[in-house]
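Annotators were shown the component list below and the corresponding predicted structure, then asked to write short factual statements about the assembly.
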Amino acid sequence: MALLEIEDLSVSFATRAGNLRAVDGMSFSVEPGEVLGIVGESGSGKSVAMLALMGLVAAPGIVKARRMAFDGRDLQAMSARERRHVAGKDIAMIFQEPMTSLNPCFTVGYQIIEALATHAGDSSRVRRRHAIELLEQVGIPAPESRIDAYPHQLSGGMNQRVMIAMALAGNPRLLLADEPTTALDVTVQAQILDLLLRLQRERGMALVLITHDMGVVAETAQRVLVMYAGQIVEQQHAEGLFAAPRHPYTAALLDALPERSPGAARLPTIPGMVPGLADRPSGCLFHPRCHFADRRCRAEMPELRGLDGATVRCHYPLAALADAR
Amino acid sequence: MTAAEAEALELAAPEHPLREFWRYFSANRGAVGGLVVIVIVVLLAIFADIVSPHSPIASNSKAFLVPPAWQQGGTWTYPLGTDAIGRDMLSRLIHGTRFSLLIGCIVVAISGTVGVALGLAAGFFSGAPGILIMRLMDIVLTMPPLLLAIVLVAILGPGLVNAMIAVSITYLPFFVRITRATVLGELGKDYVTASRVNGAGTLRLMLVTVLPNCMAPIIVQGTLSFSTAILDAAALGFLSLGAQPPTPEWGTMLADARDFVLRAWWVVTLPGLAILITVLAFNLMGDGLRDALDPRLKR
Amino acid sequence: MLRFLLTRASLVIPTFAGITLLAFVLVHAVPGDPIQVLAGEHAISQERHDELLKSYGLDRPLPIQYLRYVGHVLEGDLGRSLITHTPVIEEFGALFPATIELSLAAMLFAVVLGLPAGILAATRRNTVLDHGVMGVSLAGYSMPIFWWGLLLIILFSNTLGWTPVSGRVAVAFDIEPVTGFLLIDSLLAGDGDAFRSALSHLILPAIVLGTIPLAVIARMTRSAMLEVLGEDYIRTARAKGLVPLRVIGIHALRNALIPVVTVIGLQVGYLFAGAILTETIFSWPGVGKWLVDSINRRDYPVLQGGVLLIGTVVMIVNLAVDLLYGLINPRIRHRRA
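Structure shown to annotators:
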């Protein structure tokens, strides 16, 4: 049985200018212990979907889903109290900006111990020791002294490690990481990603890694979801995705990677912009920016269909072209 | 250019700033309500002589403490009753609008002009002159404003003019501070450097280049100071330090009101109500102005 | 932290100098002959006039006079009241506790009602409650407090007869002044009736004086909370699965309190100005009424001394607030090495 099952998730925001659909009919699942990458540009809805899962979408956002189940239990049917036991303990989330994601008025130790007190149920004597152990596990040097530091006294990389330690306090079965390295230096990025993968392996935790960086996906994910304008447009195993992307958007994202154009004078880009509230295209949402769009694409929204072990939302998936090459 | 492109261009042209301002301002119902009340008050002040049924200072020895018309003993000759020496409350209240508006205008004019000038100077000449100005303002700020005003009036002698001068002095630091802070913020920007490079002299830089861009917070401060001035002048009037009787200033009308708490509630309640309505209107409008002028809140 | 403390504390000296300068300029700015001013209504002969001139040092140049004045002040000599001939500082000491008692009660009222109101308004944004709190606060600082006091007297003292009209305590009671705070002194003396009387006299003035601070605190708390609630660390706290009460009451409030404490501190300056009006309405025997009476009676030493003392008290309170702010703002308290 899948650890996480999401069917037909939609998140919309009622604004004065109209209804903004941030997430549109998203369905996916996560197996225990797997690493799932979710890729997309800003505005693709990848973060909002995770927030919806955690119950963190505030008014005026409206979350609707046919099914949201964790470990077989229906998240939507739970009381607020039950939900807090799941989201926070069994499912943990870390965010993009470590410097602002920790409360500046409390020490990092206080905040980790608070998580332990809420979810692990140790006695208070044990909690501090446990917190120090967690800091050690996430690779913070001299944890006994660091535990009493305030977030502004630590660097961005250290703060992100603290966030991870805090997330681990409840022994989560699923960790959602929303662009955990985007705000960090390149060298620190690699360290944090290594840390996340190591923890994932050691604890048998499932990891959902949200990013806009295909390079990060290449190094970490086993399976990949590609999102565009609130919809899933492609879903494949990582090797397959990089070798033979099915959706034109995925192919364009890959083409934009500098590594794929060695010696080129100009990098290929994707013309146009992600549709916002006012300019949602008819038919396929990607068609204004797609080289291969035709009349059918302009008129009819494609369904998500299976194709050789992948799923694609496109009238003319690239499989044929890849095979032809 | 096709017709479609031309239409798109037209849609994309930015709104006139005044229209944009009005769009934000009018969305705030409280602010618009405040504006309406202010317009009414201004009209009352202008046409006070025509609208008032009686003279505000004429007393009638046969009509001391007449209750308002709807109470027992009241009469429609004096719709809101009379005070202790037989003067018509309604007429006095209407004429009071003139004094309140006058106080607000003069106080804001004086402390605004002098304050902004000092603030500009402190911002542009941030060396010794700037520091001196700010220290002076700090000295003024060591006292709570109303207390300082009372003390100043004690020196200058009671009276409406002295009260206005005293209050203006106590408001100076607020204008100086906000102007200086905004000026310092603008001085670092490129358009100032560009003007300087073009050879603009200091005076021109101050008044023509920088000042217009600092107006938003100054205007908001001005509106709020207007309403506070009415309150402070009324307080001085209440303490017999401001406008002197028989001037129908609302605060002065309350000076002896304590004695009538028991037997003539209208002498106590009505002038204060007039102050409340007017000040509330200015505060609502000031809030609306601030929200409409604050660039951060847009979009 | 230490550096912050020292920097802030060192500002006291120039501020105090400013206050003494203000007080000094006060009396000397009054138009007319200073001796005549000091003598008030009494007529004095020319010899007496010149005698006094010399003894007050008024024949010396102004800067010297100022320095003499500061010297006196530092020794605690602020002159004597022209009316009662008691040393100004003694009169102040006798009346100050009454003002403190009133101000503390007003502040308590403002904080106990204002903080929760602001928090509620922020957590229930754009609801009737929110608009209600905002509307009432706006009305609160748009009205003249002397009028508000009179209105409450009409309502509660006359119409309903719940509270007394004036004074600090019923004349019948004679309480031994130990601390100067009637509430404490009556408890110390074990006199329940006196305590109740003092309390009932305190309620209405405290409400009147505390109304504007209440309005300001409610508004400030609301806007501080709204800003904090939008921060990333609140999202993290929620993601941790913490109870909403904890998220708001501990994580959010702790941060929102930082600007709110500053605002509360600033209200103290307002309280003295407001005390003047409130004490006048309720005949509350405090420093504010004393000051106003001195103006009407041309008792200039009292006016000068009162201004100096009140200004000093406000300065000290502002210093305490700044230091408290440094303590609760962790960025200042724990600077990076």
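Statements collected:
1. Residues 157 and 188 of chain A are 6 Å apart (CA to CA).
2. The first helix of chain A runs from residue 46 to 54.
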